[in-house]
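Thread: "does anyone have the structure for this chain?"

Original post by V.I.:
We have the sequence but no experimental structure in hand. Need at least a predicted one for the grant figures.
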Amino acid sequence: MPRRLREYKNMKPAFLFIGPSKSGSSWFFEVLREHPSVFVPHEKGTFFFDRFHHRGSGWYEGCFADAEAGQVVGEVCHDYLSDPQALARIRAYRKDMRLICCLRHPYERAVSSWKFYQRNGLDRPTLAEQGQEMPSVFEEGYYATHLANVFAAFPRDQVLIFFFGEIAAYPETVARRLYEFIGVDGSFVPASLLKRVNPAAAPRSRILARFVARMDAYARQLGLSGVVARLKRIRWLRSAVRRALYRDSVDAQGWSGHLAEFPSHVVQRYEQEIGELEQILGQDLSRWRAPPKAGARVSAAPQTTTQA
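Reply from O.Q.:
Generated one for you, tokens below.
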């Protein structure tokens, strides 16, 4: 066994970014990765606590084998927040784990999730159909329910909550609070602070984009995600692949332009969840609500959140 793996194979992560998806996880990953006192695996998301728990803690801790002595170790995995079993496993693994999440306008997040499947050639014709085939498109936005599960397992002082709009409005503050929360120098300024990370895109070829997405998933199943991640770190290669596969995509409608595509039961659930989240966090989140006549789903709706 190589010395580094032997020496650090029992390195336990001290923090996790737990989600949800399409809420800044790529930005958080880059900002954490660039700090000299922090180590995260080469690929965003090991998915150990949900998909690959059967591989055992030895496999998981091996994902951190390249950490240097003295670095704070953790990972960014956007699936854990909405998975009660994953949260229970995290609790069993390390009771003092520090958890970070970033909440995005739930309607906007759902539309962004649908667009992400479109980028990979895996989308359905309508948002409703996408949610029916992949319930997580809507369910990841049930924030009050998810946070209730988090707070049932962990004390609140171990949980740091951001709002998605803060990344664009106050990136320096977000990075500083993040670093200080995990116990490293908060004055460090990462190169990715003001960069758009993993922006929205549309596939040039649905067939090719679908093939690449499935090959990436297959590599994870084989335990080769680290190799793929290292290839992605080659800047010229990453840029060339992106240009070949995708084109920039801007949704001129915004979330409110898609409101009619949300099933009524999802709208009702989101409105209920927003109200409960206001009580949990003591925050006014009225800007997240659908217009009063949501039954008609017309759209003079507020813009995305900035800071709450």
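V.I.: this helps a lot. The chain has 14 helices and seven strands.
O.Q.: and Strands lie at 15-19, 38-39, 72-76, 98-103, 159-163, 201-203, 246-248.
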